[in-house]
Amino acid sequence: MDTNKIIENLKKRGFEAVFAANKAEAVEKALSFISHGSSVAWGGSVSIEESGLLAKVKAGNYKLIDRDTAKSPEERAEIMRQGLTADTFLTSFNAVSEDGVLFNIDGNGNRVAAITFGPKSVVALVGINKIVPSEADLEERALKIAAPLNAKRLKLSDERDICAIFSKTRICKTKGRIKIILVGENLGY
Question: Which candidate, 66, 109, 134, 143, has a CA 20 to 30 Å from the CA of 168?
């Protein structure tokens, strides 16, 4: 797998893309994309938790839009809606093809909505384990690897509950709005 070629292909599609050798380097690159004092939201992402990025953001000088602070399902949904207007949205992708196409499966839709439209900037950490050879392989990786592991993590009895919305992003229309940090080690599902 040629990570330089993957980065080049992502850039050709309008994404801002960089390579980080490890999680620590990825977190530093991610933080460089987020202005102090700006609003930050995130979707459910093992990658941003595992890397330490979420902890750094929570400890930093940012206006957090944190759905986990909600006291009811209704308040949680409202906070997730607020996340769509954040300055920065943190996430990952379930799969990325070597030719630069991004893919996610989402349960509620807040994550794919934020990636598609809303926040001024999207910063995504993508572990090398999520790279697939071609666009044709994206959905299979998401369904066979990411969805079952996420369903288990969320204690869902049926992994179909997490497979409500499928999103494939082939081009970043607002050049550089979506920033991909490809991490040279496994990260997330």
Answer: 66
